[in-house]
Amino acid sequence: MDMKRDYYEDVRLFSSPVVVFWFVVLIGALYIFPLFAENYYVYVANYIAINIIVATGLNLLVGYTGQISLGHAGFFAIGAYGTIILMAKAGLPFLLALPCAGLVAAGFGFLLGLPALRLEGPYLAIATLGFGLTITQVIGRMKLFGGREGLHAPNITIGPWVIDTDKEFYVLLITLTIFLLLFMRNLIRTRVGRAFIAIRDADIAASTMGVNILYYKTLAFAVSAFYAGIGGGLYAFVLKFIEPEIFTLMMSIMFLAMVVVGGLGSMMGSIAGATLLCWLDLKLRNILDIPYIGDWLEQLSKTWFSITGVSNIQFIVFGTIMILIMLFEPLGLFGVWIRTKKYWRTWPF
Amino acid sequence: MTDLIQMIVSGIATGSSYALMGIAMVIIYKTSEVPNFAQGEMALISSFFAMMLLTSFNLNVYLAFSLTFLFAVILGCFLEFAILRRAKEPNVLGMIVITIGIEMVILGVVSWKFGAEQKTMPFPIDPYDSLFIGDIFLKKLDVLTLAAALFLMAVLFLFFRFSKLGLAMKATQQNSVAARIVGVRTNGILMVTWGISSLVGSVAGLLISPTIMHPYMMWDPMLKGFAAAVMGGMTSLPGAVVAAYMLGIIENLFGGYISIEFKTVVAFVIIVAVLCFKPSGLFARHYVKKV
Amino acid sequence: MKKNLMLLVFVSLAFVLSLAPTLFAEVGVTDKEIHIGQWGPQTGPAAAWGSVARGTGAYFQWINDNGGIHGRKIVYHMFDDGYNPAKTMAGVKELQEGTGIFAWACGVGTSTGMAVKDYLAQNNVPWVGPAAGSLNWVNPPQKNLFAVYPLYDGEAKALVKYAIEKMGKKKVAVAYLNDEYGKNGLRGAQEELKAHGLATVAEVSFEAGDSDLNPHVMKLKQSDADMVLIWTTVTHAAKIVGTSKAMKFEPQFMSTSTCSDFPLMMSITKGIWEGVICATFGELPDSDFPLIVKYKKEVFDKYAAKEERWGVFYYSGILFVEPMIEALKKVGPDLTREKFITEMEKIKGFKGLGAEVNFKPFDKNDMYSRQGTSQTFLVQCLAEGKAKKLTEWMDIK
Q1: DSSP string spanning B265-284?
Q2: Contact criterion met (CB below 8 Å) for B145 and B16
Q3: Which of A315, B23, C127, C351 is geometrically suited to a Cys-Cys bond with B108, CB 3.0 to 4.6 A?
């Protein structure tokens, strides 16, 4: 059913007019959403959209090129600080500062890509992890970046349009997100994307086929870092205040978890993974308000655990969900989706 | 001069707890090729288990510690048996995410049960008692950690080299299908590996907890242990130990002479530098991949 | 055309009418209830601070069971943000826009508070007593935000002054955490030393993640200081004092109110904390100050969970909101935010568990119009976590 018959079908952005139709409907729905939703949900949507951007970028690196990164919070921080500083100190407008900061992050990504040429597995994990920790440490020590006292985000103005509410920011953010996602989809379907996949599957074989490993591996790091940088730049304006402690190792780990839980090497997977994990992260704190279960948990805490630590149940639930998804579906949420689709198509057999 | 020697001695003391965590990570990686991110938290729950035995049940220290070691072994075996073995068609990244999930669950359980307030564990040795050799001081607890690290390294090294079980573990690591064909029960081997690793980790946890205990106490030792294991080559026990001591000493010298501000991250910078020249770590033979 | 105009009028009329209820009554206030919110880390690395929020909860319960405030009960919405500003923002928006919160109390953490500061200011929601001593709250001052926590540099000044004038110390070293909290302490110490014609002999900074403190303490020892001012986390403070003892380096240690929970400090240092001098922001939990005794008996013993400890963090959850309750009582039955803020501004010489609280009418050039406290006193830790009062309350502007 998904067979490709010629090259142009393979590189096409949408596989059929039906898909185009649904795509347009979805985009429309996304733009209408803030008119109906409460401000809080718009904020949540913003938060999720940013994580989707970062997860898609990381997926290019992890899912398509077969590398690993535990340092994406570092690129995220570079993007956030870069955007604010370029705006506040250099006076650039937001729409210029954001890609510039993204490019700075991409530059760091390129540098980190160089040792990655020789490293893999846990070695690469530790090298990237070290990068993430070092970046926040350096930022925390430098006066230019406000040290540990943090920085305030200035207001965004685009022409006559002053963006100061979540809903206005949402419109900007969702436009950028759609643009970045389409760009990524294009990138993966072209020559570059196929080179990435070839490197993932067998890098030596790829290089004998004429894929320039040096170029494509560092490019994967740079593009991935660029996405993280853009995400960071946008995040700074969602929070309006940043300080180095925000960009922890836990954040890097969560980015990686989003990609893996969503499904390696699938864009829909990254979107689903980022949405699910962010939503859980924001919502699980209300776990004690669920009728019956909440009361039962409270009772359980009183008898066996401690009532002061009862909020930690959210960690347990979060971890369990991650474990279960990975145990039963190594392809992550994307795998679940494929399975359900197949099940319906072939029903009742 | 005294300062220099003192820094090296302090570095060795610090390196010991990294070494223990490093050994624990290497053992699991050796057989299953999974970098175990739950290692720190496995040690954490064992330490809190020991504290509970000591303070709530008023057990004798030695009995409590023996029970803790037993608990650690069972915990390791259980995690392998109940969770990791159940993974369908596992890939390395999936396994990493599973260990991160385990880490979160254990962290949640410990904080839920014991709360977040700092505690210490009763211990026969006062954590702040020290020995003096001339002007050089060394905490007694650090001496014990050092001894434990060297002892465990030696025992495990001999175990992997000479015992039947150890050889079976090696065989499992190198080629699990072939090992199964010649009659090695690879599943059982993996379980035992997790048990041993958890035991080593719990020793590290028990030696950290007399100073201070809180749910996040194992993060730093775990990361540094992981870093040391990577630097040593991820599959080599002596490598992990040597690298751990190197890290401890470098950190102390760097903190003493260059910059105390960047002491925590210098370890990672050095590792990146080392890995650039020796991509598989200092002590592992470079594995040449074939098409 | 006319028809369209009619329609427009109707629509706008309907719109105004639908808004009307919110115009007359204040957000978060009904005939029976006042909604007050707070965030506090119950999970994550800063979770030890979470007892502040639980202390406030117990205090509000006690107020409700004693008749509430002018017939209204306080509905307390506490949520866990895990010390992650993104989650703080999410929780505050959810509660503010969903439930409707009249005012926010405390809130642990500088970065978490900074994330929501502008949002609360834009909506003019009162916020009383952020549980972190940061200059950011009052510099520049903001109409809706009232700080109760004393500024850290003041505490440092008081300690250094005492060391120099009463104890004759000359060589002062500072061990500080590399963040705003630590830097404020360092700045206070530097200024006070300068006023006496001295300077620090060593300034050693700590990162929150440091676990091996040997090199740091060696630096302190090499400086040969006779007084070390510790401005770090509780965990680091315990390790610094312990490692110093292991090195046979025994100067006078002094520390901030964060580490003034002597029973806790004694238990995690196994008794080495004895003799350390701390600044405090309130009467000590174990003192026989009448209000402390009363709260301990009526609030803590009755409403706290059995694992809870009557420590500095827990009771500061009460301390920070006392002025808020005072103002709520004074406003009377007709409660609005405008009136509440006016009453807060009128608070003069208010004495609860902590230092004297004074606010002034809003003046954007005077940070003391919104910084309520500027007093501290010094205590010394004795055996078994008992405390000896070294000074009376003193002014430290």
Answers
A1: HHHHHHHHHHHHHSTT-SSS
A2: yes
A3: A315
pTM for the predicted model, two decimal places: 0.91
Instruction: Among B21-35, B57-71, C14-28, C261-275, name the one with the lowest average pLDDT.
Output: C14-28
pLDDT at C311: 87
Chain C residues near residue A246 by CB distance under 8 angstroms = 84-86, 111
Mean pLDDT, rounded, for C319-334: 91
B6 inside 8 A of chain C by CB: yes
pLDDT tens readout for residues C361-377: 998 888 889 988 888 89
Say if residue C24's pLDDT is above 50: no
Interface of A with B in 116-135 (CB under 8 A): 118-123, 125-127, 129-131, 133-134
By the 10 Å C-beta count (0-12 exposed, 13-18 middle, 19+ buried), A80 is classed as buried
Of A68, A256, A309, the CB nearest to B112: A309
Handedness of CA C77, C78, C82, C86 (dihedral sign): positive
DSSP letter string over A51-93? HHHHHHHHHIIIIIS----S-HHHHHHHHHHHHHHHHHTS---
Q: Classify residue C354 by its DSSP letter.
A: B
Which residues is C173 bridged to in the sheet?
C202, C228
The Cα–Cα gap between A93 and A141 comes to 27
Q: C243 to chain B: nearest residue by CA?
A: B128
C171 phi and psi angles, rounded to 5 deg:
-105, 100
From the list C114, C115, C307, which residue is nearest A307 (CB)?
C307
- Please list the ranges in chain A whose pLDDT falls under 70: 1-4, 10-11, 13, 349
User: What's the confidence (pLDDT) of residue A306?
Assistant: 83
- CB-CB neighbors (< 8 A) of A330 in chain B: 87-91, 94
Sign of CA dihedral C214, C220, C224, C225: negative
- ipTM for the predicted complex comes to 0.89
Tokens 């230092």 identify what position? C355
The single-letter code of the amino acid at A240 is K
Cα–Cα distance between A80 and C179 in angstroms, integer? 19
Q: Show the tokens assigned to B74.
A: 């069972």
Which residue's structure tokens are 């596989």? A15
Length of chain A: 349
Q: Is C210 on the interface with A (CB under 8 A)?
A: no
H helices within chain C, ranges in order? Answer: 2-24, 51-65, 85-94, 110-122, 152-165, 180-195, 214-222, 234-246, 262-269, 290-295, 301-303, 312-319, 322-331, 337-346
Backbone angles phi, psi at A162, to 5 degrees: -95, 125
Please name the residues in contact with A29: beta carbons below 8 A apart, sequence gap of 6 or more: none
SS (H, E, C) C215-282: HHHHHHHHCCCCEEEEECCHHHHHHHHHHHHHCCCCCEEEECHHHCCHHHHHHHHCCCCCCCEEEECE
Of B198, B214, B196, nearest to B120 by C-alpha is: B214
The one-letter amino acid at C125: V
* DSSP at A13: S
Is residue C114 very low, low, confident or very high in pLDDT (cuts 50, 70, 90)? Answer: confident
**Which residue, among A137, A311, A313, A318, would best test binding to C if mutated, counting the most C CBs under 10 Å from its CB?**
A311
- Tell whether C99 lies on the interface with A, counting CB pairs under 8 A: no
For A202, nearest residue in chain B (alpha carbons): B291
A292: left (phi over 0), alpha (psi -120 to 50) or beta: left
For A288, half-sphere exposure in the C-beta direction (CA atoms, 13 angstrom radius) is 17
pLDDT in tens, C227-284: 999 999 899 999 999 999 998 899 999 999 888 889 999 999 988 999 999 999 888 8
Pairwise CB contact (< 8 Å): C235 & B212 = yes
Give yes or no for a contact between C276 and C253, defined as CB atoms under 8 angstroms apart.
yes
The set of residues, in sequence order, having a beta carbon less than 8 Å from that of C61 and lying 6+ positions away, is C76, C299, C303
